[in-house]
Amino acid sequence: MRVNCEGCAGCCVDWRALSATPDDHERVGPERPLDDVYNLVPLTRDEVRDFVNAGFGDALTPRLWERDPESDGEGAGDDGASGRSVEVDGFDVAAIAGRPAFFVGLRKPPKPVAPVGADEASWLPTCAFLDPETLQCRIHDDDLYPDECATYPGRNLLMAVESVCERVEREFGAPGDRLVEDSVPEDAEPLFGPQALGGKVFAHPDPDALADRVYRIAAGEATADDRAEFVGTAAAASPGMLARNDDAYERYRDRALDADSWVGAAIDDWEARAANATAGSDAAGDDPTANADPGLGERVEEDRDAPETPGWE
Length: 313
What we know:
By secondary structure, the protein is α+β, with helices and mostly antiparallel strands. The chain has one domain. It is built from 10 helices and 8 strands. Strands 1, 2, 3, 4, 5 and 8 form a 6-stranded antiparallel β-sheet that branches. Strands 6-7 form a two-stranded antiparallel ribbon. Helix 7 packs antiparallel against helix 8. The longest helix has 18 residues. The radius of gyration is 20 Å and the shape is globular. The two termini are 21 Å apart. About 6% of the residues have low confidence. This is YkgJ family cysteine cluster protein. It comes from Halorubellus litoreus. InterPro entries: DUF7531. Pfam families: DUF7531.
């Protein structure tokens, strides 16, 4: 299918701050994400393993959901007894058979970007692998490129769910500007039902081990150890089953925790620069640290060996 992505990156950037009518579609329904990351890309178990094995465990982050026990007419006690939620750090975390449910996606640090046709750049949460200047993915032609990204927005069209392309058109353009073709591609099969368990949706076997971690995730303050705990669990999952291979869990958790990639270093740098910008300071003197300059991607990412992108010409 054909989409016009040049100058957009609407599915890779949280552009709600640019919108006159910001959409919060991910918080509609009985399960609401604990985090505030927009369009977090869910990875399969095999993709989680591939990222960790490639040294990019520091690019991954978990998502958990808070369940509303009153949404289906049941009280909190009934819901908890059924195993569909479990209390951790004061949150009724959505669960599968009493095990906190989650998926793993790509982190979105603040970057200086001008998405969806914006005239000026601003600091917005952006996929860790997106070049802020060209608005192209640095791993688009790599084996690591997630299936969720490669097939987007095919699954939305298959399920008749509005895509980001259409939301961008409604807010900033006209029909057909971004979603040029709306035929459903053959590879748009969604992963739903029991087969999603252990394949894209995971269950942590020990709620007590998540004490304090869930609070930090909800506060946007997850540590490297917090993220590695979930990454290791996802990588050690068995498709269609609740079981976790503890040997694989320890191996992948340790690899994720030891990751020291250009992505992780760049995220730390971006977060520091965005904090300086918010504070209105320029801690590096003549270096435009506080400026929303997409060209900083060369210094922050490419100087750390991030792959370059081809540009649109």
